[in-house]
């Protein structure tokens, strides 16, 4: 019995006909090959891994697609959080651990995307394209790879800068709880000049923020306020039960150095005993519980303003940029420059002098200008500015800011700061224009506490009463047409000769007064230099 071999079809020995132009471009026309190249490039850009599925290594493509879907889900979740719970999203970005994971994820995605672009370059088969199209497609791929992976890498760099700044500036303690529905922070501008013993906070401002609405108020405490009070639960009660009341040697800005040098043991858990003491003093003065502090080194304040690109204010009066004080007694040389009234975009150097200058004016004018700078910074701290200049801001911040605010709660505070931008900032100064000049020397703390509560809890606006009067009940307007004003010419004494016009106030005129030592005239002309508004 014999077996014959089956006939083999001649067609079975032929090579398979490769008709899929996406996977096998050899048989495709030149225009189709170009179209294929652009499609694969677009797929790698929009849906990384899909180009490998349709034209390359399917195993690599499936792995990449899974990662792509995970990334898209994370993006969608982030968008949802931004819409429905912005605070949670901000907490994720500001938390040191989650921000570290975000940095690692961004780097991994950037490297993986770059690998896929390189693999797509192999799949494209540039040699099969027309000579002119090879350069266009190859160049486009390189540009897209740089834009995508470069953006992710830069994003990771920014997040790392922010993470380093957060861990350098802020504490790692537990979250703070609002007191009576508010967060109260002490913001100090510290100055440790070469001719000063220790650091003294010349700028002392309490910022009170409604924990729900973000409605904010600033309360300035003048540096020369005396007899600061302490509550019974303050460690300083044992040292100053009657207040910090030894006269001019116990103005409030001396307290920081006093406690740092002599009573640091009273605050064993505080990283900065002087700042903790200032919080206790501010709380006793205002009748508030102060929960945290931010201390800005005024010597580096200018670098922070420069990092933000300047600050715009509307100055109401002339402000001198004081000359040197060679004797250390407050007798400055003539100013090296002046900031004129009107709208200015101040750089860091100018903003520093605008906030600290107090020559020829009372301390309270400087407090008003500091409040103005704070309001302007808040108004101009928009997301675009922060994003485009984030690294410079973070770098400057680590050099000029220290704080005990918990790093894990920064997202909540940033969210409140964003809400605060939609409200008008309320202000109070424990001195002129809100209190008499002598009030700082002999403060009435009961009056202060009431004014603070009125500021933070204003009464609801009363409705206007209906107008029940008659038209004839109003007092006649002597300037209205038909009114019986006396004849100015009848029996009037001859007009006194007009006083000679005062010279216009210019920078040259003010500078000459300073050179001449005319302090009286300068004090008069600069009396309004505390007036200012955020532009």
From TrEMBL:
Pfam families: LytR_cpsA_psr (PF03816). Residues 200-381 form the Cell envelope-related transcriptional attenuator domain. Keywords: Membrane, Transmembrane, Transmembrane helix. Residues 457-504 are annotated as: Disordered. InterPro entries: LytR/CpsA/Psr_CW_biosynth, LytR_CpsA_psr. The chain crosses the membrane at residues 37-56, 63-85, 97-124, 136-159. Residues 462-499 have a biased composition (Low complexity). It comes from the Bacteria. PANTHER family: POLYISOPRENYL-TEICHOIC ACID--PEPTIDOGLYCAN TEICHOIC ACID TRANSFERASE TAGU (PTHR33392). Belongs to the LytR/CpsA/Psr (LCP) family. This is LCP family protein. It comes from Arthrobacter cryoconiti.
